[in-house]
Amino acid sequence: MGGANIKPEFTSQLQDKRVKRDEDIVFKCNANNLEDVNVVWEKDGQRLYDGDGISISQSRTELSLRISKAKEKDEGKYTIRLSKASESVSHTVKVTVLELDQDWRSIGWGLNVDIKHNLEDLKLKNPQVKHLNFLLHGPVGAGKSSIINSIQSIFMNRVEVGALVAATTGKSFTLTYNSYQIKNIENKALPYVFSDIMGLEIANKEGSHPDDIINILKGHIREGTMFNSSCPVPEKDRNYNRSPTPSDKIHCLISVLPADKISLMEKNNLFEKMGEIRKKASGMDIPQVVFMTHVDSACPVVKDNLTRIYSSKNIKKKMQECSNLTGIPMTCIFPVKNYHEENKLDGNMDSLILDALESVVNFAESYVDRLYKLEH
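^ that's the sequence the OP posted. Answer follows.
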């Protein structure tokens, strides 16, 4: 007799799973009685059987399913069904595989020395341009100053904090127009100058005035200019450059966007504010890219292992959101992790930053070459 007439019921249930690539998917649950009970596991309505990476087992009242080394194909809805005579009970859960089976963009992990040497040895072809100018703009706390510090750290072979970094409090740390020329460990000035300006605050009445940013692109604003969010720098100001040279102009506009706050930025219309600036830059044919920061906060896979950044579904989704909201193609969007809390260099962080830097240098160099050809 025993449990012959006992209706099958779950005494513990399955839970939804979020797994990384090559991680085992393991489901366990318990039932009140398994005597004469038919146990069936299904994925998306199709029955699962032992073998080919699938292991199904039961002992007394415990039921388990193990799928070895998860891949994209293993994502879906899983159901366990218990049936006995005319009685039946089931439970369904969802498995999300957080990564693609293969990286969708390649990067030279560990090739930092070669890339650094190439960047250090760059000789500009346009004799009117002494260095490439990059303008960083984006919301407060996105990591604009941290990008400058991170790039400088890589070339100095130690963590640097030359540009002061804002906390994510909603108020910009940078109140003036500051430029930072990158130097290497031998104190040699490299042909890369990064400019840092006030963040685009959430409040409409705060942050950099769009007209000031546009004038920076054109080379009208000199370093050290103090900003006033309510009105742009007037032409009569002593820091207004009325006759900018090609060397004064911005050669690449870098939008710095935090991966973990894309939806908040959209809600607060910050993309509209940035869009006006990007439209002007497009009219001047200035290359535009996105450095997408805070990637470790946006994705647990990346937080655990930075080298999985281009297999992370969430990072690719965030990059696509950036592309859709800015109009900048995916090829010009670079996820990076800045030095923030670290006090020692990390090779993988360096690889990501150098990969992005190498690309923007190529874009900027092509732009100044076009300027030279147009004038000659």
